[in-house]
Design a protein that fits this description.
2 copies of one chain form a homodimer. Chain A folds into 2 domains: 128 residues, Aspartate Aminotransferase, domain 1 (Alpha-Beta Complex), CATH 3.90.1150; 257 residues, Type I PLP-dependent aspartate aminotransferase-like (Major domain) (Aspartate Aminotransferase, domain 2). Chain A is built from 13 helices and 13 strands. The first copy, chain A, has a 7-stranded mixed beta sheet with strand order 2-8-7-6-5-3-4, with helices on both faces. A 4-stranded antiparallel beta sheet of chain A has the order 9-10-13-12. In chain A, strand 3, helix 6 and strand 4 form a beta-alpha-beta unit. In chain A, helix 3 runs antiparallel to helix 10, helix 5 packs across helix 9 and helix 11 runs parallel beside helix 13.
Chain lengths: 445, 445
């Protein structure tokens, strides 16, 4: 095969000291490739029926705005995105670590893939009271990313179980990894064959009936829950750990919303449950605590006691995955994480949490006053509104069009979310108040 | 199964406003789990014979130090880790974007998973002269991480080809993804069955003999090359693109060292080659340019014209992967990326590149004066020293023990790297000078 045109295309890097581009393309056209790429699309990617949930919400929001350019501003109670500025002490940590990179003494390049030693130690001591060893803490750029890497570690031969509804990343990443079969006519609506869906709804107080649940290798469990806002009690988590032990399963416990728990006695970590270190990984994040949704910092705990069936410590394989396809969280951002865990930082986080929980209370009370049955919103930043059988995507559109408020349809979190709507408490207070007014005007009889 | 002890373990989050821990563990012991975890270890993880290369180098370095506590300081010409402070203008971009997060107006949470629009546009215009559209640019936390995600997108049914020697992440991540078979007695030393190894050595001027290379689905190709320091010419890259077109392959072109190219006419991007947009993905990084090895910022180009065999744009699946298991590069870090691409930033980068290239020249000339045959080090920050058949791990140890200089054994980059040693030019100048003195004292006849 001979290309019919040969064009010297210039690439810039045109700063002083770099050679100037050799030539420039001017209206040159390439002939179409005469041989198509022969690489087959990964069939697992094709199993995903729709785009990832949150970009899809953004797409619908933008489509509404394009069609209604004169709309009043849209208020988002959609994606759980923090809106309050980063407080002073924590900000100082971020700025300080950035500034140090400009000095000869303070500059640092590649860090340990597992995170800065001080931060691992501080997470272990300040957040886990020393129950977890520093070497069991792996710092990362966030839980979403860690869940993707966990799937790569587990491989495609495991069976995964999820709460239904749940954060869509567990299922989507399991599908991408090849843990599921293609959807066929026998597949229940909205499910992926091969995933164990553990129904969580008002009838079981949002905790699955484990006596009736098939065994899975990996059990994704989130408390406080996204999207339902339910928190699992100590008794429930004990049941979960015992069930995992009985079945030889690994729990991936998502504790990203743990500090929103205010009720005494409700566990903030799976490791509060005896024996959990032998069966559970915990993923966690500074995103919602410290306003780090865009800053990107999280961590995953892989206890040394956790072992695969052949005796290989899970921690070894996790370490290998992290070293090979991750290069550590940003050194600037880890400086912010250290500041978060100073006393001043923890106090600032506490204030932020209280702010968002007050929003949650407002949203919850408003929806209740409008006659809706409402879940969550007490020890969690999400309110889960029962639509009494109505379609959640229809209600999403109806509220967007009538009140110009973005919510998240429960169906986006799995089939078990149909008939519910998730409201996020992460909006600024004024936006929250106005959203409540708009919803009241819309729904008041 | 009943747990014999039930311990209320306290988890902190003990900032003011948060409930105090319920109780504390005092010397409590868990009984050993009586049922082991039944989850089978992912067999692909077991196919990796050794730890990831660079931590292994660090381990050996630390072992030497532990055994020789009175050793003079070790000089690292090992991992390609930048050592010069981040220059003023770029630092200002990082600090400024951190500072803005502390203000109501400047705060931002989740950004687009694909990166800030301004940065995507600036990469397209400043680095690719508009040859690439902004929507083809995906900003990330680095190339290493993107290579891991690319493997997830491609899946386990593709055949991957690599230059031998090459950056170990291509092969290791392919193995993790399940693209290879277990090593058996018929496997050539150091290879993974299922990977196409394209020998690159002095006999072929470090460019593979494509007429003799089996077809692969995905071809990883790095120029300027890590570890050999070789750069592919326009003619060679044209050959590569034509070969990919003929075979229906996808090239993953790793251009992380592109701005080190000073020779006129040598392409800095695969897209300088006509037709490349229909067959090539390009991964790239700010790490080596701007001293961002610890800051973490890179990008991947997936042209809209690149399609899988069934016509699905590769870009669609890449976007789905990025949205699902990635949450965008840190907003602070992206502010630094924007500053890099200002004229002042490009000038600062150019100065940094010149600094490291002067180190490379020094190392190259020193090794040549000592009688070694040396490759690379001209348009690349790596010097590849021919050991004339000697074991590279032995030479690594010998130099560490005699000169207290860390290098990287070529064998760590694949079987084709055996008999070579990689020296990195990223050390500070004074360290480079002293390393040259120590090597001269060691090797001078």
């Amino acid at each position: 095969m001979v290309l019919s045109t040969f064009i010297a295309v210039a690439i810039a890097w045109s700063g002083p000291g770099m050679r100037a581009p050799v030539s420039r393309v001017a209206g040159a056209q390439m002939v179409a490739a005469d041989i198509a790429v022969g690489v087959k699309r990964n069939p697992n990617m094709a199993k995903l029926q729709a785009g990832y949930l949150f970009p899809e919400i953004g797409r619908r929001r933008n489509a509404y705005l394009a069609a209604h350019p004169d709309s009043r501003p849209i208020i988002s109670l959609g994606i759980g995105d923090t809106t309050q500025p980063i407080p002073t002490h924590i900000l100082g940590g971020l700025e300080g670590s950035a500034k140090r990179l400009g000095t000869k003494e303070g500059y640092s390049g590649y860090g340990a893939e597992q995170g800065v030693g001080d931060l691992r130690a501080k997470i272990a001591s300040k957040l886990y009271n020393g129950l977890i060893e520093p070497e069991e803490v792996f710092v990362s750029d966030g839980s979403k990313c860690d869940i993707g890497r966990l799937q790569l570690m587990f491989g495609n031969a495991v069976v995964s179980a999820v709460q239904d509804p749940s954060y869509p990343v567990y299922v989507d990443s399991a599908v991408m990894m090849g843990q599921t079969r293609p959807v066929d006519s026998a597949t229940p609506q909205g499910q992926h064959p091969g995933i164990v869906y553990m129904a969580c709804n008002p009838s079981n107080n949002f905790f699955p009936d484990l006596s009736n649940t098939p065994r899975a290798d990996v059990i994704y469990f989130c408390s406080p829950n996204n999207p339902t806002g339910a928190t699992a009690s100590r008794e429930q988590l004990t049941q979960l750990v015992q069930w995992a032990k009985k079945n030889g399963s690994i729990i991936v416990f998502d504790a990203a919303y743990a500090p929103f728990i205010k009720s005494a006695g409700t566990p903030k970590s799976i490791y509060e449950i005896p024996g959990a270190k032998e069966v559970a990984i915990e993923v966690n994040s500074f995103s919602k605590y410290a306003g780090f949704t865009g800053v990107r910092l999280g961590w995953t705990i892989v206890p040394s006691a956790l072992k695969f069936a052949d005796g290989t410590p899970v921690r070894n394989d996790w370490n290998r995955v992290m070293c090979t396809i991750f290069n550590g969280a940003s050194n600037i951002v880890q400086g912010g994480g250290l500041a978060c865990l100073d006393d001043e930082g923890l106090e600032e986080i506490s204030t932020l949490i209280d702010y968002y929980l007050d929003n949650a209370k407002l949203l919850r009370e408003t929806m209740e006053a409008l006659g809706f049955t409402v879940h969550g919103g007490a020890d969690a930043p999400y309110i889960f509104v029962d639509l009494k059988g109505k379609s959640s995507w229809d209600m999403f559109s109806h509220i967007l069009e009538t009140a110009q408020v973005v919510t998240i349809p429960g169906a986006g979190f799995g089939p078990g979310g149909e008939g519910f709507l998730r409201l996020s408490a992460f909006a600024p207070r004024a936006a929250c108040v106005e959203a409540c007014e708009r919803l009241t005007a819309m729904f008041k009889q």
